[in-house]
Design brief:
By secondary structure, the protein is α/β, with parallel strands linked by helices. It has two domains: about 5-150 and about 330-345, Glycogen Phosphorylase B (Rossmann fold, 3-Layer(aba) Sandwich); about 155-325, Rossmann fold (3-Layer(aba) Sandwich). The protein has helices spanning about 25-35, 50-65, 80-95, 105-115, 115-120, 135-140, 180-190, 210-220, 235-245, 260-265, 280, 295-310, 310-325, 330-345; strands at about 10, 40-45, 70-75, 95-100, 125-130, 145-150, 170-175, 200-205, 225-230, 245-250, 270-275, 290. Helix 1 links the parallel strand 1 and strand 2. Helix 7 (about 180-190) packs across helix 12.
C-alpha cells in the first residue's frame, strides 16, 4: 500500500521524544516511519505540558480534519485516558476511521476500575491494536476484538554482540518509578557482590520521582563505586552502555511489552526479568530470557549466577534474543499496520 491509495494518517499521542532527554514513544516512532515511507501523516503532540498537549491535539484534529482518513490514537490508562476520550470523540465527529493502540501493563486494572468509561471510549474504535497477547486477552475478555502488533524498533540502530563468556556487568534501563521497582536491582547487586565482589550495575533512565531514594539506598547498601547512574540515554548512550554490559536486568512490577527488553535483546544482552504482566508473553524462560518471580531477590541472583557459569545458556539467550528483536523490526511490523489500513479502506 502506498501514498497513491489516498489514505491519510493522523497519529495522536505523546510525541515528547522530539525534545532532547525525553523518551521516544511508539506513536512518534511509527508516525516518523510512515512519513519516511511516503505516507501523508499528521501527528500531535510534542508539547511537554500535559494540558498544552491536549489543547494542541484538539487544535490539530480540528484544523487537519479534512486531511486525515485514519486516526491512530495511542491509549494509556490514568489521566491520559481523558485525552483519548476527547480525541476519539472528535475523530468520530469528523468521520475518521479510528484505530486505538493500547499500551501499559496497568490497562487491565484500569478497565476493571472504570468499566463504563473505558467501554464507551473503546467502542468508538474501528480497530483495536495491542502490542502483546497480555493486553489482547484482557480486551477480549471484555468482548473487544483485538489485533496484536509488536512494538517497533529500528533494528539497524542496535549493534548485535553475541555473548557467551559473561562478566558480571549488569544494565538496568527504565524510569525511576515504583512500578519498575529500581530498588530490587540494587538489592540484587548487593546480594550478588557477596559472592562476586566485582559485580557492577549501570542504572539508566529518567527520574519518575524515585531516583533520590534509589541513590540513597545504594549508599546504605555500600554500593558506592559498584553502581553508576547515567540519567536518560540517547541511542548512542544505549549502544555504549549496552556494548559494555553483559546482562540486562528488568525488575518491573507492572509491564506490557517493554521496548527496553526488545532493545536489550537486539544488542545480544541475555535478559533476567520479573515475570509480570506481558513479559511472559514476550520472553520464554530459558529460550530468550530468564524469568523470576516479582520482587524475588534470591531468584534473580541465582539466574544471574547461572548465566555467569553456563556459557551455552548465555549464548542461547543472546542469539534467540536477537531473533526476538527481529520480530519488532520495521520490515516485520509494517505489513501488519498496512493490512489494517487496507481493511479500513475496503470496509
Amino acid at each position: 500500500m502506498t501514498e497513491n491509495s489516498g489514505m491519510r494518517l493522523g497519529f495522536i499521542g505523546p510525541m515528547v521524544g522530539r525534545h532532547p532527554g525525553r523518551t521516544t514513544m511508539q506513536g512518534q516512532i511509527l508516525s516518523d516511519l510512515f512519513t519516511r515511507a511516503n505516507y501523508r501523516v499528521v501527528s500531535a503532540s510534542a508539547k511537554l505540558n500535559r494540558y498544552a498537549r491536549l489543547l494542541d491535539i484538539i487544535r490539530t484534529l480540528i484544523r487537519q480534519r479534512n486531511n486525515i482518513d485514519i486516526v491512530i490514537i495511542e491509549v494509556y490508562c490514568g489521566p491520559s485516558f481523558v485525552v483519548e476520550d476527547i480525541a476519539s470523540g472528535l475523530g468520530r465527529c469528523f468521520g475518521h476511521r479510528i484505530v486505538m493502540w493500547l499500551h501499559g501493563g496497568a490497562m487491565p486494572q484500569f478497565m476493571s476500575r472504570f468499566p463504563r468509561w473505558t467501554n464507551r471510549v473503546l467502542r468508538r474504535a474501528d480497530v483495536l491494536v495491542a502490542p502483546s497477547e497480555y493486553l489482547a486477552r484482557a480486551l477480549r475478555a471484555q468482548g473487544f476484538s483485538t489485533r496484536v502488533i509488536p512494538n517497533v524498533i529500528d533494528l539497524a540502530q542496535y549493534q548485535f554482540r553475541p555473548r557467551r563468556h559473561l562478566e558480571p556487568r549488569l544494565f538496568w534501563m527504565r524510569s525511576f518509578d515504583p512500578i519498575y521497582n529500581p530498588e530490587l536491582a540494587l538489592h540484587v547487586l548487593a546480594r550478588l557482590r557477596n559472592t562476586i565482589p566485582n559485580a557492577a550495575l549501570v542504572m539508566a533512565g529518567n527520574d519518575g520521582g524515585q531516583e533520590f531514594q534509589v541513590r540513597q539506598l545504594a549508599q546504605e547498601l555500600g554500593l558506592k563505586g559498584a553502581v553508576s547512574f547515567t540519567g536518560f540515554l540517547d541511542m548512542q548512550g544505549k549502544q555504549r552502555i549496552g556494548q559494555n554490559s553483559d546482562i540486562f536486568l528488568n525488575t518491573s512490577r507492572v509491564d506490557n511489552m517493554p521496548v527496553a527488553l526488545v532493545e536489550a535483546a537486539a544488542m545480544g544482552l541475555p535478559i533476567v526479568s520479573t515475570a509480570v504482566g506481558g513479559v511472559p508473553d514476550l520472553l520464554t524462560d530459558r529460550q530468550n530470557g530468564l524469568l523470576v518471580p516479582d520482587g524475588d531477590v534470591e531468584s534473580a541472583v541465582q539466574a544471574i549466577e547461572l548465566l555467569l557459569k553456563d556459557g551455552v545458556l548465555a549464548e542461547t539467550l543472546s542469539s534467540n534474543g536477537r531473533r526476538l528483536a527481529e520480530r519488532s523490526s520495521w520490515q516485520q511490523v509494517r505489513p501488519h499496520w498496512e493490512k489494517i489500513f487496507t481493511d479500513l479502506k475496503n470496509a
